Amino acid sequence: MKPIPFTRRAFTKGLALTPLGLASSSTAFSESHAPAAHEQLTTAQPLRRVPKTAAEYNRHPPIREADPFAEPLTFNFRRATPRLRPFALNEITLAAGPLQHARDWNRGYMLRLSNDRLLHNFRLTAGLPSKAEPLGGWEAPSAELRGHFVGHYLSACALLYATTKDSEIKIRADGLVAGIAECQTALNANGYVSAFPAELFVRLDKREKVWAPFYTLHKIMAGLLDMKQFGDNEQALVILLQLAAWVDAWTALRTEEHMQDILETEYGGMSEVLYSLSGLTGDPRWATAGDRFVKKAFFTPLAKRQDELKGLHCNTHMPQVVGAARRYELSSDHRFADVSEFFFETVAGARTYAAGGSGNTEGWLTNANRLALEMTPSSHHQECCCAYNMMKLARHLYQWSGDTRLIDYYERNLLNHRLGAIAPGTGLTTYFLSMSPGAWKTTCTEDQTFWCCTGTALEEYSKLNDSIYFHDEEAIYVNLYAASRLHWQERDIALEQETQFPDSDRTKLTVRATTSKPWSLKLRIPSWTTNENVVTLNDRKFEVSGAPGSYFTITRIWHPGDRVELTMPMRLTVEPLHDDPSQLAFLYGPLVLAGQLGEAPSDFDLRHHQGPEIQEAPPIRVPTLSARGRPAETLLEPIPGHTLAFQARDQSEPISLIPLNRSWGRFAVYWTVT
């Protein structure tokens, strides 16, 4: 079976032809120390139908598809059973490697911010004194989005504490929660608490100009929810329940028509946090409140498998789809699964750049499969919040299906976009990851920006261990290749993964503890590797390789010290833009390569620019590559003596390329190839 590589066109075609969860698999059964294997391939086939004539079709009246969200929503608990489950954050420990480094840089930035400064606007709004120096940017006392970053900060603290049991982070987070509780008590406003006054909601109700109060409230509520779930803080739930009651009361007083009108102005993930609160407490009240934030004009086309995303703001609609996924998980209402699955399919398949991100100037500016056109108006591509939310959505869908293509997507985004968006050492992060030739990365400041992407980055780098491994009742799924340790507490199974990936194409998994009963180890064979991948057990090679885009399964009675090694050959490939095939991106395995074009501008004012402004930078020439009739993937060759470094061969001038996630000067990802 020919593997389906992760490209936008192949991803869409693959999802159309193969139901989720029916991707191919390779299975090896071993009941002793010596491997004995056979390969089993299964793939769904499209039904073959005899074409009908127009006359035969015209015998029947046309079917009119009903509006799936025409009626008022009613919520009932009927939890869907996932195919796979994540491990608890404290069951996976990162070891030295790219993920641990990013986490530690992020922690350093978190500790450079003081609680008093973070609470300053909450205290002023509650009428409490504060002598703290105000933060700037989107957290300034005059910014209507103030408080959003504090919610992200709480989530990041909770996730990092759950992962590492970091006592310093725990003390910080508990102090913030206590400070917010003090403000809620001082306000005495039916549970309302925020860093801005409730007057913003009066303006929202009147449809006057206002900057997203519910968007910000979602971040604060999500931070409190995470502090309860992951931060072992009961006070956070007390605050959250009172605040959710205020939201419930506010929305219940509006008609559905008026709420739908409000949702044309106000966006964000309110539905997600209310559904999650309902799932935590078992109280349907909060899910019913969450249903009031379902933007039907957005969901209805998606449920009908229609891409009408042109003109919409990416980052404020993506959380609504994550909310739809959560709604499906709690209610088994397949309308919400349809919304989630088609949205992911169309964005990942038709609106995603090679690095994994989507959008330009925060929006979808064109119809699907028009990225070459969409790239041109601005150099502000791939808002980092979008990568964060799409990875979050992919993780939900993966738990429903176990489809390896979702992990291919997740890995592509993680390695190229997320690990490429945090500055080594400082932990400062980017807003946009531009694909414009000659672009560079711009990062936030220490305390004068606080973009939305600064907040989502804080969360992202606090939970980098969360998707390396999954499990079902009998198997461990190894999805990402990162130095780490796993302790499946329920089964008392422990694994250690040692790898230098992606600098090396090999990984080794050693069983450190196990039960006496057989269980399965499922190794993801990435779609980007070749059929020459190799799996060994205790230094003995299996007779078959894994099918790229599948899992290689070893089922046996395991013993402490058993070693499984996987070699995944990496190869050079190219990905063209759908609407301009002459524009190509080069990849090595899952890594997007970036041509090096000199140093980035050093005098760029980040307080007024969230991303690179190509037109304001010194002009730079980006060479055109000449293929001379050869396959484009043969244009590059490794630079001897350098890891993950390449050069263009037989060109009029020297061109060197390294992974995008290591590029901090001016670079080019897409090249004109003639």
UniProtKB/TrEMBL annotation:
The keyword Cytoplasm does not apply. It comes from the Bacteria. Residues 31-50 are annotated as: Disordered. One of its GO terms (biological process) is carbohydrate metabolic process. Residues 1-30 form the signal peptide. Keywords: Signal. The keyword Ribosomal protein does not apply. It holds the Pfam family Beta-AFase-like_GH127_cat. Residues 92-465 form the Non-reducing end beta-L-arabinofuranosidase-like GH127 catalytic domain. Residues 476-570 form the Non-reducing end beta-L-arabinofuranosidase-like GH127 middle domain. PANTHER family: PROLINE-TRNA LIGASE (DUF1680). This is DUF1680 family protein. The lineage of its organism: Bacteria, Pseudomonadati, Acidobacteriota, Terriglobia, Terriglobales.
